[in-house]
């Protein structure tokens, strides 16, 4: 397996949008990424690179949240699932399914699953084993199926936490699990040695398809078709309008009536919560920072990312305000938290000489007296001055002055639609 991303700073990128999830420890063991299988379903989950938790990127409506775990990695560990799901299903391939009823009335409940193997195989749900499921669990252990799938039925929110204690008990020599001492200095944690197994490679070297998927997920969080009315804004309901006596029985008479859809209030489209939107934007920008640069599909994926940024991040007023206001409130703080993803309207002040072939810009945050160095942007317009939208991950505060460094993000000033010039500002003349 090859090692990817030589820049140490990238390994220090910790929790995209972590200010929204302050509970996520910055020095937690490297666990969640190791436990996740490389599947499409997992793109819906946000897993900061050093976090022991993964969070489902839901869309407000109830749905089945699917998380694929590597069986080898989670064996002999315990996970806790915090969710408003009504049922938790554990699947091994298509053949084996075990179900646990957890809650009702959309209450958030924490459940624990322990996957014991070895000489005392058992599947414990909240510390108890259902004897009816014992045989099935033995089958799961024997099966060649590499993944264990968790399905959370009727969920809008879900966080899965991997228990670092169970994982530490496994000791060394268990492939795929890297435990980093909580006290490790950031620089030693930054070395990618723990990430050179299959999961690490792919999770940290984002494919063009993954970048596209995260851009599409963000755009869809901003605006997605209402499931209830399928985008029509109206639903047809059967309404009783009369009764008719037919011999001994009374027959109810119904007719179709068109009503405004109560889910989307007639709009036909829905928007995710601000928190969920910001998480989704953070996932996109992290993927942008970690996309494979030498893949033949990357150029196309970047073009579509550029289009999404222009149309959705700049072109949608509410989204623009959410991203840039949040960005400003992060950047106004005296010390920037590494790994935080930020977006901001900026004024390009200077272009610095390239460092090792990488472009460097000095920009000023609109409305506050703060300068940021944008280093090696993945997407950048040929701008020399004037207004632009900046996005990326905070990687470091420069010593000795107030400049914050944003690495491998984007800095774009697209020709803009006249409809939204009033919040974005006209493109400057050269
Ligand atoms: Zn609707």
How does this structure look, described?
The protein has 430 residues and is an alpha+beta fold. It folds into three domains: 8-182, no CATH class; 225-270, no CATH class; 275-424, Beta Barrel (OB fold (Dihydrolipoamide Acetyltransferase, E2P)). The protein has twelve helices and 21 strands. The protein has a seven-stranded antiparallel sheet with strand order 1-2-11-4-7-8-9. The protein has a five-stranded mixed beta barrel with strand order 16-17-18-21-20. A hairpin with a 6-residue loop joins strand 1 (45-46) and strand 2. Helix 8 runs antiparallel to helix 9 and helix 8 (208-222) runs parallel beside helix 10. The chain is flat and about 85 Å long. Zinc ion binds at residues 226, 228-229, 233, 261, 263-264, 268.
Topology:
Elements: H1 8-12, H2 32-35, E1 45-46, E2 53-56, E3 63-70, H3 71-74, E4 78-83, E5 87-92, E6 96-101, E7 109-116, E8 122-125, E9 128-129, H4 131-142, E10 147-155, E11 158-162, H5 164-169, H6 186-190, H7 198-204, H8 208-222, E12 224-225, E13 234-246, E14 249-260, E15 269-270, H9 274-290, H10 298-314, H11 317-331, E16 341-355, E17 358-365, E18 371-375, E19 379-380, E20 386-397, E21 404-412, H12 421-424
Parallel strand pairs: 18-21, 19-21
Antiparallel strand pairs: 1-2, 2-11, 3-10, 4-7, 4-11, 5-6, 5-10, 7-8, 8-9, 12-15, 13-14, 16-17, 16-20, 17-18, 20-21
Helix pairs in contact: 8-9, 8-10
């Amino acid at each position: 397996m090859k090692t990817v991303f030589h820049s140490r700073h990238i390994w220090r990128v910790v929790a995209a949008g972590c200010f929204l999830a302050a509970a996520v420890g910055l020095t937690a063991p490297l666990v969640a990424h190791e436990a996740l299988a490389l599947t499409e379903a997992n793109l819906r989950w946000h897993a900061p690179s050093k976090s022991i938790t993964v969070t489902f990127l839901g869309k407000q409506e109830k749905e089945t949240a699917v998380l694929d775990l590597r069986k080898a990695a989670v064996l002999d560990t315990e996970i806790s699932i915090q969710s408003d799901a009504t049922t938790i299903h554990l699947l091994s391939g298509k053949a084996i399914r075990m179900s646990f009823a957890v809650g009702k009335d959309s209450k958030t409940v924490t459940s624990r699953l322990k996957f014991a193997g070895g000489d005392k195989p058992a599947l414990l749900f909240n510390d108890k084993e259902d004897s009816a499921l014992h045989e099935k669990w033995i089958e799961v252990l024997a099966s060649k199926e590499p993944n264990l799938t968790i399905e959370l039925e009727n969920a809008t929110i879900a966080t899965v936490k991997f228990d670092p204690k169970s994982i530490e008990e496994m000791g060394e020599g268990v492939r795929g699990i890297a435990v980093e001492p909580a006290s490790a200095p950031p620089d030693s944690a930054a070395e990618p040695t723990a990430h050179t197994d299959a999961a690490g490679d792919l999770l940290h070297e984002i494919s063009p398809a993954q970048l596209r998927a995260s851009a599409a997920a963000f755009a869809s969080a901003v605006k997605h078709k209402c499931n209830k009315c399928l985008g029509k804004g109206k639903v047809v309901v059967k309404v009783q309008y009369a009764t008719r006596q037919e011999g001994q029985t009374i027959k109810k008479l119904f007719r179709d009536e068109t009503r405004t859809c109560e889910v989307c209030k007639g709009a036909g489209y829905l928007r995710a919560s601000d928190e969920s939107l910001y998480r989704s934007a953070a996932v996109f920008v992290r993927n942008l920072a970690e996309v494979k640069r030498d893949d033949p599909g990357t150029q196309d994926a970047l073009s579509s990312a550029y289009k999404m940024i222009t149309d959705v991040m700049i072109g949608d007023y509410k989204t623009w305000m959410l991203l840039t206001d949040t960005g400003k409130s992060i950047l106004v703080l005296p010390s920037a938290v590494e790994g935080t993803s930020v977006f901001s309207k900026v004024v390009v002040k200077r272009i610095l000489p390239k460092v090792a072939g990488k472009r460097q810009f000095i920009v000023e945050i609109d409305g506050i007296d703060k300068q940021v160095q944008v280093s090696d942007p993945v997407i950048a317009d040929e701008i020399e001055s004037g207004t632009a939208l900046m996005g990326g991950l905070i990687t470091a505060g420069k010593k000795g002055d107030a400049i914050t460094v944003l690495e491998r993000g984007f800095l774009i000033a697209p020709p803009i639609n006249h409809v939204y010039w009033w919040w974005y500002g006209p493109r400057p003349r050269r």
